[in-house]
TrEMBL record:
UniProt keyword terms in alphabetical order: Metal-binding, Zinc, Zinc-finger
UniProt feature, compositional bias: Acidic residues: 202-212
Location of the SWIM-type domain: 98-133
Record-given protein name: SWIM-type domain-containing protein
Record bears the keyword Isomerase: no
Pfam families: SWIM
Chain intervals for the UniProt region annotation (Disordered): 197-219
Annotated GO MF terms: zinc ion binding
Lineage: superkingdom: Eukaryota
Amino acid sequence: MRILPDIFTRRHTRLQHKAWLTKQFKQYAEGDLVEAHQRSAEARAEHRHLVAWWPIDETRQSSAQELALNGMLTSLTHSRPDNYMAACASSTKTDVTYALLIERLGKASCSCTDFLKNGRACKHLRALQLLLDALVIAGHERPFLFPATRLEALQIEQGIDLDSTAGNPYLDLPALQAIGADNTVLGDGLGDGVSGFNSDGTLEEVEGDEEDNGSKEDYTGQDSGLVTAAAIVHTPQVNQQAAIEQQMHSKLYMELCPLLPRLQGIDNLLSDVTSLPSDPTQLNEFYDIAQSITQHISAI
């Protein structure tokens, strides 16, 4: 019979000890210790699962333009059709180069401290984005997906179809114009160690610049990666109207990608039904929109 009192005594002692710990360290843990531990675990898990997203950030965007104008991007290559890699020299440290990767469908990474700490697009990735935007404007590449929020980036990482345009198809045309030193196109608007990527997109420490083995397309050779972008933007054919048209094409492409599978599903459903719903209002509205889209496509 003495067993039960001993059990209750030990349990009561543990509860008292836990209450004492909570009271002693509550102000330092910013709340209950269990909650603080859970927050810490979630933060560690989030840090291990870095994804790149592209919020509006004027400071980083301005720094990206400086990197582009100063020719800090080099060795633009891609071993796969939709994976672009580049190296970007550090603007603050000597003999430090960061490895960049941008995939067409929204994934991206950089070996700099800013990205490894925060996940959002750093100035190096934004500088590479400027180059890719220039290639898109010139018609050398299809549009790229740049998710604007972390949630959208996680959905892309997990292969989830987005309800609407996840990326930001906006092309920073003034920045591209500045890179090309062109004042007529659009008006007046103007981390450490050398790293590379394996063929599967993972980071790998390398001795120096990666050599072209013939399986990669190199847009830059030994020149700065943004020399190509400057030449493209400065080309007379790339005028303001062409740039605006390309923006509209990018927006259309981004809207169509997640929509096509759903339209196919609607088409399959309509082929199986024999009568309209009791309230066909939404169906009639869909019919009107589909007719309007068909007319616009026919008129182009």
